[in-house]
């Protein structure tokens, strides 16, 4: 029997208080997420249980117990507090998936800081935008990545502490500080900061169509949603060995790569090396992984490599598979059932939702290609594209929307109340974030389109905006376009998502060149590498099309949607506003 | 063969390895599985090879395994050059 039991039964009289039952919570306990995932697990007699099995490239392997997790997160918490950092300070974690990432994330939460994890492949410009927006006070990084921070440090007056947690201490520069938690004196006791349910916990940046990325602010009470969904959707149990392949630079990697599993005291594995099918299967085999949460891009890459590497490994330990990041196509579900004997169950949620919202559940019949059904306690709908009224008839496409008020919901976009308000259909003018997130007459509109079939299953259609979903990560076209025009050869630029068999979408750029520059293979490569280093490999255009002039409206705005429609072979719509020539 | 290896190695070191990185890259250093080159960045490496050697590599050939070392990359390119 799965943890959720019967989905239909769970819908009846659902109350989020059941999350407390799942955690064995007693009134008066300290809510702090960092404490719950470490001290609390140890206090429940599991200090010797393995919390983390970590492998890096080159046969590096380390294991840590929940007792270790407690000591090392204490170490980070104390160190940060001793540096003068205070509750509420934004503390960025910018490193590969090394053990200190996990220890420091929990340590930041323990001392009351706001953890701001950023994807370590970000280039200096992506980093600068996000640190400036957050007013980040400290950044924890490694020697490999500190160089990017040095390039931008003088533009970030609020960033007072650069802390290097791994590498050669003698190579530090300026006021950089070195702290190796595993070599430092053990901190046996640290009184975790007493938070309220609404105390900020994690700040994740997400991209939109216009403007720079926005910081989605989460709070400590998000744990009720993350723990319950980890139990009911991922079906995590005490004896599981769990692998979430996501990087904690993105929300999946924190909600389900740290908070969900460790709040339940589950052992998890982390693989910090590049992707190859053989390496992944070996990792599953060696660690006897039972529950695997991955992404469609990875699954399609595994499909591409066929069954031979599957058959070369013993994957019989696997008992439950789930997927997130972009819609999981029916072929991938069917393939996984054929080769692993288990289907990947798709889950849908976003940075803003903080936890799973629509999912396929253990025991519920699957319709391959469907997103599944709303999690108990989540009121979902698809709204008419124009009226924003819920669509009653089956199979009609609308906007996926949720009634506000679920525990893991984001509480604000940092310093952007107007944009936060714009996400709620029917929001009163001038309403503040706290009024919006508790107003159950409103709908939070996700930005994705779907339909609902007669049986209540949701079917993803696509984004409702120009945001590019590549490999399960959202990339904002504006950010790419702004960087493109910084290239010496580019006069103007537009970025769109183009269809891709493995990544769902990849970035395609349309550019016009400045006088004196001609299209060439070398220029194409130069532009690609320019964006890769400045922003990130995800934002790098995988195709560049040169145009004499980009299509614009009469008011001079580049018609990105027109270019996208042409690329996707869709109706280009009303062209009456197109510039005449 | 060796000249091609040197050209590919030089490009990888120039584009993917920072000057003061501790990483030593040679013909048999793992590139993809070590994380020196990530799967998205593989595309720019593929474009480099296609332009440089005037070949076209299909997606089924441009796998992480085929791109994992300079030696395996050069083997792949040579298949196309006959």
What's this model, at a glance?
The complex is a heterodimer of chains A (581) and B (82). Chain A is α/β, with parallel strands linked by helices and 581 residues long. Chain A is 30% helix and 23% strand.
SSE layout:
The complex is a heterodimer of chains A (581) and B (82).
Chain A: H1 7-11, H2 18-23, H3 33-36, H4 39-46, E1 50-56, E2 60-65, H5 66-82, E3 90-94, H6 99-110, E4 114-117, H7 124-134, E5 138-141, H8 143-152, E6 161-164, E7 177-178, E8 200-206, E9 214-219, H9 223-232, E10 241-244, H10 251-263, E11 267-272, H11 277-287, E12 291-294, H12 296-304, H13 308-311, E13 320-323, H14 330-340, E14 344-348, E15 358-359, E16 373-374, E17 380-383, E18 398-402, E19 412-413, H15 417-422, E20 424-425, H16 433-437, E21 443-452, E22 458-463, E23 468-470, E24 473-475, H17 477-484, E25 490-500, E26 504-513, H18 521-534, E27 543-546, H19 560-568
Parallel strand pairs in A: 1-11, 3-4, 3-5, 5-6, 6-7, 10-11, 10-12, 12-13, 13-14, 26-27
Antiparallel strand pairs in A: 1-2, 8-9, 9-19, 14-15, 15-16, 17-18, 18-21, 20-21, 21-22, 23-24, 25-26
Helix pairs in contact in A: 5-6, 7-8, 9-10
Chain B: H1 2-16, H2 42-53, H3 70-81
Helix pairs in contact in B: 1-3
Task: Provide a descriptive summary of the structure in words.
The complex is a heterodimer of chains A (581) and B (82). Chain A is of the alpha/beta class. In chain A, a hairpin with a 2-residue loop joins strand 23 and strand 24. The N and C termini of chain A lie far apart (66 Å). The model of chain A has no long low-confidence stretch (mean pLDDT 94). By secondary structure, chain B is an all-alpha fold. Chain B has a single domain, classed as ACP-like (Non-ribosomal Peptide Synthetase Peptidyl Carrier Protein, Chain A). In chain B, helix 1 (2-16) packs across helix 3. The longest helix of chain B is centred in the N-terminal third of the chain and has 15 residues, at 2-16. The model of chain B has no long low-confidence stretch (mean pLDDT 87). At the A-B interface, helix 11 and helix 18 of A face helix 2 of B.
């Amino acid at each position: 029997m799965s943890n959720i039991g019967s989905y239909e039964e769970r819908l009846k009289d659902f109350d989020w208080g059941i999350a407390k039952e799942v955690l064995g919570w007693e009134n008066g306990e300290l809510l702090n997420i960092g404490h719950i995932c470490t001290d609390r697990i140890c206090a429940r007699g599991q200090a010797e249980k393995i919390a983390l099995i970590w492998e890096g490239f080159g046969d590096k392997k380390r294991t840590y117990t929940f007792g270790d997790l407690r000591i090392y997160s204490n170490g980070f918490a104390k160190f940060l507090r001793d540096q003068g950092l205070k509750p509420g300070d934004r503390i960025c974690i910018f490193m590969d998936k090394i053990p200190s990432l996990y220890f420091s994330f929990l340590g930041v939460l323990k001392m009351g800081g706001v953890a701001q994890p950023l994807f370590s492949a970000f280039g200096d410009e992506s980093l600068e935008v996000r640190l400036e927006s957050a007013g980040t006070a400290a950044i924890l990084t490694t020697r490999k990545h500190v160089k990017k921070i040095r390039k931008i440090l003088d533009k970030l007056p609020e960033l007072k502490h650069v802390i290097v947690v791994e590498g050669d201490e003698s190579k530090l520069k300026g006021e950089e500080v070195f702290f190796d938690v595993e070599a430092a004196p053990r901190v046996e006791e640290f009184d975790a900061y007493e938070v309220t349910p609404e105390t900020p916990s994690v700040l994740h940046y997400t991209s939109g169509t216009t403007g720079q990325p926005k910081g989605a602010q989460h709070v400590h009470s998000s744990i009720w949603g993350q723990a319950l969904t980890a139990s009911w959707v991922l079906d995590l149990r005490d004896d599981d060995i769990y692998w979430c392949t996501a990087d904690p630079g993105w929300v999946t990697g924190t909600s389900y790569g740290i908070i969900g599993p460790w709040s339940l005291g589950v052992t998890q594995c982390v693989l910090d090396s590049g992707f190859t099918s053989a390496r992944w299967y070996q990792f599953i085999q060696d660690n006897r992984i039972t529950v695997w949460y991955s992404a469609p891009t990875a699954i399609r890459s595994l499909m591409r490599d066929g069954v031979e590497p599957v058959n070369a490994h013993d994957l019989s330990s696997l008992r439950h598979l789930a997927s997130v990041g972009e819609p999981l196509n029916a072929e991938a579900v069917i393939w996984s059932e054929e080769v692993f004997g288990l289907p990947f169950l798709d889950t849908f949620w976003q940075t803003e939702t903080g936890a799973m919202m629509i999912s396929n559940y253990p025991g519920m019949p699957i319709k391959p290609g469907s997103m599944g059904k709303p999690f108990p306690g989540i009121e979902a709908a698809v709204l008419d594209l124009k009226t924003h009224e819920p669509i009653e008839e089956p199979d009609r496409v609308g906007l996926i929307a949720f009634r506000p008020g679920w525990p893991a919901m984001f509480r604000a976009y940092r310093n952007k109340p107007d944009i936060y308000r714009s996400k709620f259909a029917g929001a009163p003018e001038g309403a503040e974030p706290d009024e919006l997130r508790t107003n159950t007459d409103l709908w939070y509109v996700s930005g994705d389109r779907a339909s609902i079939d007669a049986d209540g299953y949701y079917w993803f259609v696509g984004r409702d905006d120009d945001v590019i979903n590549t490999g399960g990560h959202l990339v904002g076209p504006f950010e790419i376009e702004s960087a493109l025009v910084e290239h010496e050869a580019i006069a103007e630029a537009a970025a769109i998502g183009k269809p891709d068999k493995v990544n769902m979408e990849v970035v395609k750029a349309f550019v016009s060149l400045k006088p004196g520059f001609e299209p060439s293979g070398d220029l194409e490569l130069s532009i690609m590498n320019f964006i890769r280093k400045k922003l990130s490999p995800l934002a790098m255009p995988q195709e560049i099309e040169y145009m004499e002039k980009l299509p614009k409206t009469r008011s001079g705005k580049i018609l990105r949607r027109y270019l996208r429609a042409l690329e996707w072979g869709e109706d280009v719509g009303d062209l009456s506003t197109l510039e005449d020539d | 063969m060796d000249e091609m290896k040197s050209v590919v190695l030089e490009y990888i070191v120039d584009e993917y390895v920072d000057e003061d990185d501790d990483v030593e890259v040679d013909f048999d250093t793992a590139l993809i599985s070590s994380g020196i080159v990530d799967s998205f960045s593989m595309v720019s490496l593929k474009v480099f090879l296609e332009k440089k050697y005037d070949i076209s590599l299909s997606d089924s050939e441009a796998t992480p395994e085929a791109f994992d070392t300079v030696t395996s990359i050069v083997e792949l390119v040579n298949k196309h050059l006959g």
